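Researcher: Quick test of sequence recovery. Tokens follow.
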């Protein structure tokens, strides 16, 4: 079930008659999905759509987590649905939230969790919801892949509170939400002005599978008057324990509500790296005296160390070597390999081609550091090879006379904007 898969998920709700909606990455396909907003009230109903492209039928588990104070708070098993097999293109199905989950009369809002249910079934799918009133006005919200969500401290910007008096006839109110999953969560919501000065905070605690709504977060923090361009940080107050893999998972978001027409927008709180090593924006160099020794070493002057570095284009990357023998080392960055001939021009049955090494784009002979901007191109023109791939970070000994003695110990320090991960080096013939 998806609650065994999630480390954190998104959610959203309705405030009175206020509809909210959110955006997502275009990568919205996976084996476990979260629908941020779903509702069954006297005014609104939600229909959930699920699609996939596979030769087998998908059996999906449906679960619902209702908000505190609703007619059906907490976690609810809503049974399974079947998405029919696809003949090559997308097949889909849909269901009513209220009917599928057997929700009672009254106000119901919360999030829908979808996941593969059949044994050994790991097919990906995508989903979205359509929530609308009896007059057909409403909104659509995409599903989010469960694996892309976060348990870190989370941040929002651009929040405001307007009383409606004075020059602005429209009153605005900001409401913030925090939800828990399999573990209890203690949290703090901090509000700060545009300069980062703290305005106030709200503390709270949740038991497993709860969603709480803080109406008018400014009033909840003891603040009065009008505010604009306010930032919020939601922090997990779990006590740090050496060896912990993660803090208890939770979700957070805010809505800025127009109290004249009762419309609202939805703002999911954002984290830096989701406690995901593949999205680290900094690779720290471990070197003496902070560490007992350097992390790597060149053991043969005829070989170079090749380190696979995942790069999410577009990005800016800065790397440098750390060593007590920098004058004997050099480093360069190479793009992913390319095909020697575009596949579109290859006749069927032709012999296989061996990819060529990608071009060197930064660093080089006698260089121990570089700063590189990939540019905005996401896909390279040559055969459509993706640029979001493993690039090569290469380190070797300089070609001096006499040759440097080995081993030459070193560490690597890199910074980037989109996040990366590097692998342990392997050796290849030195060619620079």
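Model:
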């Amino acid at each position: 079930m998806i609650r065994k898969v999630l480390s954190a998920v998104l959610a959203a709700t309705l405030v009175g008659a206020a509809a909210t909606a959110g955006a997502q990455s275009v990568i919205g396909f996976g084996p476990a999905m979260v629908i941020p907003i779903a509702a069954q009230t006297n005014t609104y109903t939600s229909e959930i759509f699920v699609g996939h492209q596979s030769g087998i039928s998908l059996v999906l588990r449906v679960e619902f987590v209702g908000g505190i104070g609703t007619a059906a708070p907490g976690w609810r098993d809503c049974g399974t649905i079947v998405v029919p097999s696809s003949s090559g293109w997308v097949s889909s199905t849909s269901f009513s939230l209220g009917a599928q989950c057997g929700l009672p009369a009254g106000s119901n809002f919360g999030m829908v969790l979808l996941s593969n249910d059949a044994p050994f079934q790991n097919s990906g799918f995508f989903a979205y919801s359509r929530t609308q009133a009896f007059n057909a006005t409403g909104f659509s919200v995409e599903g989010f892949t469960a694996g892309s969500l976060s348990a870190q401290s989370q941040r929002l910007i651009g929040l405001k509170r307007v009383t409606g008096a004075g020059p602005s006839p429209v009153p605005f109110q900001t409401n913030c939400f925090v939800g828990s999953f399999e573990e209890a969560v203690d949290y703090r919501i901090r509000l700060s002005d545009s300069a980062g000065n703290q305005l106030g905070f709200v503390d709270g605690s949740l038991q497993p599978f709860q969603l709480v709504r803080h109406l008018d977060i400014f009033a909840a923090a003891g603040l009065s008057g009008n505010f604009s361009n306010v930032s919020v940080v939601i922090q997990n107050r779990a006590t740090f324990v050496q060896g912990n893999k993660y803090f208890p998972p939770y979700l957070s978001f805010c809505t800025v509500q127009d109290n004249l027409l009762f419309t609202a927008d939805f703002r999911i709180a954002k984290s830096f790296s989701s406690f995901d090593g593949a999205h680290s924006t900094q690779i720290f160099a471990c070197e003496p005296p902070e560490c007992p020794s350097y992390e790597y070493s060149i053991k043969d002057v005829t070989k170079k160390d090749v380190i696979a570095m995942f790069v999410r284009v577009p990005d800016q990357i800065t790397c440098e070597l750390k060593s007590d023998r920098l004058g004997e080392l050099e480093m360069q960055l190479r793009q992913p390999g390319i095909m020697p001939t575009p596949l579109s021009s290859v006749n069927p049955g032709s012999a296989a081609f061996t990819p060529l090494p990608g071009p060197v784009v930064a660093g080089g002979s006698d260089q121990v550091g570089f700063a590189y901007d990939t540019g905005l191109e996401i896909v390279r023109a040559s055969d459509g090879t993706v640029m979001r791939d493993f690039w090569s970070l290469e380190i070797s000994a300089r070609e001096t006379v006499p040759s440097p003695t080995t081993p030459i110990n070193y560490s690597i320090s890199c910074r980037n904007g989109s996040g990366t991960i590097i692998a342990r080096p392997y050796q290849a013939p030195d060619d620079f």
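Residues 1-24 have pLDDT under 50 and may be disordered.
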